[in-house]
Structures are given as structure tokens and as C-alpha cells.
Design goal:
The structure holds two protein chains of two kinds. Chain A is mainly alpha-helical. Chain A has a domain of about 80 residues: Nitrile hydratase, beta subunit (Cyclin A, domain 1). Helices cover about 60% and strands about 0% of the residues of chain A. The model of chain A has no long low-confidence stretch (mean pLDDT about 90). Chain B has two domains: about 35 residues, no CATH class; about 150 residues, Nitrile Hydratase, Chain A, CATH 3.90.330.10. Chain B is of the alpha/beta class. In chain B, α3 crosses α4 and α3 packs across α10. In chain B, β5 and β6 form a beta hairpin. The relative contact order of chain B is 0.16. The chains are: A mainly alpha, B alpha/beta. The interface between A and B is large, with 65 and 70 residues. β1 of chain A pairs parallel with β5 of chain B.
């Protein structure tokens, strides 16, 4: 991240969400219809209008299968359960929910759950991430 | 709309993709979570290995066996329609595996939906990606796309047509929305031209897509080849 230019990153983030819309910026009051719309949950996509797209078969990456297995093992031994997993995914927010690949949603949710449940700390997680990145990069050289 | 299917969203060259670069951030995150979990004793490496072994063994072949057996054995068919989970045991599929109390995500009611000349069934999960893993294995990626989830409940006939399945108008179409408590699988009709076939032969034409409901079995149809395959980094094969 240190080498990534901030402006470039900012542009990318801005492009993730459309700007041609009514900007909501904590209004003093809102119409009931808007309140109802705001209460709809983002994962409830059934019936939303959309256009045809090609449906591809995609081979599972190793990390994807492992994200599934790790999430299931965490639930098997009680660190969380499948309802918490789904809730984690659904609560990622629209940008991440639609922006991340399917299993990235799972493993992102798992990491956040373990931190929130105080089963691991943020420091432990970032130290482990650094350690693994170093290990994998050394292996690929 | 998402551009994840073609893998070339936002004008990026394929080389910029997360999973195509030297080290995947998702791979790192998964390893970090797993290793920390094992170090903290949240689960064991043996648990992970055991679950992986189970996951390796599941696949559409499980469902194919159920359907083929039901085609040749009317009494089994009745048992399967009456209690899907229980009937699965007869072909060696135990919904309590691999933990003894099922998988955390699939320990649910299981219903088999019978197609008839006047009724066609198809499954979806609009809220997430619920899928009968113990009998069909891992879901195909397209099943989990927001696009399929959005459109299957609104314009099912159009979506089926995109899969190459054109249903006559007088055939009723029922879309079953799976959820955390209920999983479904379609039992297609046995096609003509399969008279005298063995159970094993029949199972070969009961492909995954025919049990999701986006295709029909045919004597010469042994694989779901309609969709293109994406390999690592979102590239097309």
C-alpha cells in the first residue's frame, strides 16, 4: 500500500460507486418512502431488474476452497456459526459486498468476526499477514 | 452492473488482477485466519484436513445416483420425495457428515422436487448462495452471481432460455428459493431413448445442471458444456 499513489487509489474508490445520485449526507429529516428504501437489505437482490449476462463456469482457486473450509471449521468448533457468517457478509456494505469475489466475502467476514469476538487481535492479524506475505513472496522468487 | 464475469472490469489489464499477480491478498488473508485459528486452538489442522477430505468427495455424482435410482425404483422414488435426507442414506450420502452433526452451513431440510410433463422446477438462492452441497457438491460460480439471483425469480423462462432450455408455455415453472433452513434439488424426468439402461448409465446423463433445473437430461448429453470456463485470474479457456 505504501507504494500505491494515494490519488490513484482515491480515484479507484470513487469510481466504485456512481456519483449521479441524490447525495445523502445525514439529512435533518427524510420522507417515509426513503426511510423504507433505506431499510431494504442489500443482499435481498431477488427480483431486481438486471440484464442478461453470460454465465461462466469458474474453476475454484485453492484459496477459495480454503476460505470455505476455514469458515466451516470455525463454525464446526464454535468460533461462529453459519448465521453469523451470512450476517457478516450481508453487513459488509454495498461496495464490498458487490466488489469482492464470492469467497473473499467469506474470509473477510471470518477475519472481522474473530477480531470482534476477541478471539484474535488486530495486531496479531496484521503481524500474521505480514509474515505470510513474506513467506509466500520468498517462495515465489 | 458487475463486470466480474468477464474478468476485465474497469479497464484493467488481466495482469493487474489480484489472483493473477505473484501473491494473492486473498490467499494471504485466508492463510492468516487459518493459521491464527489453529494456533489459538479454535480448530485443529486435523479438523481442516478432515473437512477437506469430505469436500473433495462431494459432487453432482451424489445427486445423479439419487435420480437414477429413483428412475428405476418407484418405491425408492417415493421415499426420496417423502424424506430426502433419510433416502440419501440409501446411496451412501449422510447429511450428518463430516462432523457428526452435518456441515455448519448445510444441516437443513432437504427436499427433492419432481418434474412432471406439466411442471418444471428450478432452484436459486436469492439471499445468498444456499445449495444442497452434500448431494451436488460446491455450487457453480454462476449460481452465486447477483445476476442469476436477481433474474431467476423475475424472468425465469428467459434465464432458462439463456441456458438453452426453452420450456413450452403450458409447462408450469416453479422457482424454489433456497434458504438457511431448506435446500432443494430437482429430479428431472427420465428422457426417452434410455429404455433398458442400467442405473449407472442413467446416472451419467443426470448432470449438475439438470438437478439445478437449468437443463434437461438427454441420452447423448453427459456434461454441462453450455458455459465457458474461467481459469485462474478470470481468463477464459
Amino acid at each position: 500500500m505504501a507504494t500505491m499513489q494515494y490519488d490513484k487509489l482515491l480515484t479507484k474508490v470513487r469510481n466504485l460507486s456512481p456519483e449521479e445520485r441524490d447525495v445523502l449526507d445525514s439529512p435533518y429529516t427524510i420522507p417515509n418512502e426513503l426511510y423504507a428504501a433505506l431499510r431494504s437489505v442489500l443482499h435481498d437482490v431477488g427480483g431486481q431488474p438486471d440484464t442478461p449476462q453470460p454465465y461462466f463456469l469458474k474453476e475454484e482457486e485453492d484459496w477459495e476452497m480454503n476460505a470455505y473450509l476455514t469458515s466451516e471449521c470455525l463454525a464446526w468448533r464454535g468460533a461462529w456459526n453459519s448465521e453469523m457468517r451470512r450476517r457478516r457478509e450481508n453487513d459488509l456494505g454495498a461496495t464490498e459486498y458487490f466488489g469482492l469475489p464470492y469467497y473473499a466475502r467469506w474470509i473477510t467476514g471470518a477475519a472481522k468476526a474473530l477480531v470482534d469476538e476477541k478471539l484474535i487481535t488486530v495486531d496479531e492479524l496484521s503481524a500474521k499477514i505480514d509474515e505470510i506475505r513474506e513467506r509466500l513472496e520468498a517462495k515465489k522468487k | 452492473m458487475s463486470t466480474r464475469h468477464d474478468g476485465h472490469g474497469h479497464g484493467e489489464a488481466p495482469g493487474e488482477f489480484q489472483i493473477a499477480t505473484k501473491v494473492s491478498e486473498f490467499e494471504i488473508l485466508e492463510l492468516a485466519v487459518r493459521e491464527l485459528a489453529i494456533e489459538k486452538g479454535l480448530f485443529s489442522a486435523e479438523d481442516h484436513r478432515k473437512f477437506a477430505e469430505w469436500a473433495d468427495g462431494i459432487g453432482p455424482h451424489g445427486g445423479s445416483k439419487l435420480v437414477a435410482k429413483a428412475w428405476v425404483d418407484p418405491e425408492f422414488k417415493q421415499r426420496l420425495l417423502a424424506d430426502g435426507t433419510k433416502a440419501c442414506l440409501e446411496v451412501g450420502i449422510d447429511w450428518l457428515q463430516p462432523t457428526g452433526s452435518g456441515t455448519p452451513s448445510d444441516y437443513t431440510f432437504f427436499y427433492v422436487l419432481e418434474n412432471t410433463p406439466k411442471l418444471h422446477n428450478v432452484i436459486v438462492c436469492t439471499l445468498c448462495s444456499c445449495y444442497p452441497r452434500p448431494v451436488l457438491g460446491m455450487s457453480p460460480d454462476w449460481y452465486r452471481t447477483p445476476n442469476y439471483r436477481r433474474r431467476m425469480v423475475r424472468r425465469p423462462r428467459e434465464v432458462l432460455a439463456e441456458f438453452g432450455l426453452h420450456l413450452p408455455e403450458d409447462v408450469e415453472l416453479r422457482v424454489h428459493d433456497s434458504n438457511q433452513k431448506s435446500r432443494f434439488m430437482v429430479m428431472p424426468m427420465r428422457p426417452e431413448g434410455t429404455e433398458g439402461w442400467s442405473e449407472k448409465q442413467l446416472a451419467e446423463i443426470v448432470t449438475r445442471d439438470t438437478m439445478i433445473g437449468v437443463a434437461l437430461p438427454a441420452p447423448n448429453r453427459k456434461s454441462d458444456t453450455k458455459t465457458e470456463t474461467l481459469v485462474s485470474g478470470g481468463r477464459r479457456r
